[in-house]
Amino acid sequence: MEQYSFDQLPRAVSELHQKLDSIQDLLLESRQAVPQAIDLMTISQAAEFLKLSVQTLYGKVCHREIPVSKKGKRLYFYKSELEEWIKSGKKQTISELREQLPSLVGTRKGRLR
Q1: Does residue 35 register a pLDDT over 80?
Q2: Residue 45: pLDDT above 60?
Q3: Counting CB atoms within 10 angstroms of each CB, which of 4, 7, 15, 86 has the fewest?
């Protein structure tokens, strides 16, 4: 490691700044050069992601309960679609149901038939 005198510090800091700028530029270039990964999965990958057996997943596909893409005899799943499918099954909490109650009750006028 090179020792710098007090008079050499401004030059050393300037060199250090230039090197950091070049490293930053390289990192930005490499980040842009990497193509975005497609979140496409096979049935075994989707089963592992969902923590289900492959047979259970085939059953859900057969009953059209889960989003799937089919090309020939092969099934493909998009991770983003599976995440949305999971979110769509979210059950509301008691507090969320209580918030909706006034709007549901207040919309009816007249007597029940």
Answers
A1: no
A2: yes
A3: 7
* pLDDT tens, position by position, 65-89: 999 999 999 999 999 999 999 998 8
| Tokens coding 30 | 């490499």
CB 54 within 8 A of CB 44: yes
Residue 95 per-residue DSSP state: H
Q: What is the pTM of this model?
A: 0.52
AA identity, residue 42: T
Angle at 95 between CA 94 and CA 97, to 5 degrees: 65
Q: Nearest-5° angle of CA 59, CA 89, CA 93?
A: 150
One-letter identity of residue 101 = L
Alpha carbons 87 and 68: distance in angstroms, whole number:
16
Rounded to an integer, what distance in angstroms lies between the CA atom of residue 47 and that of residue 45? 5
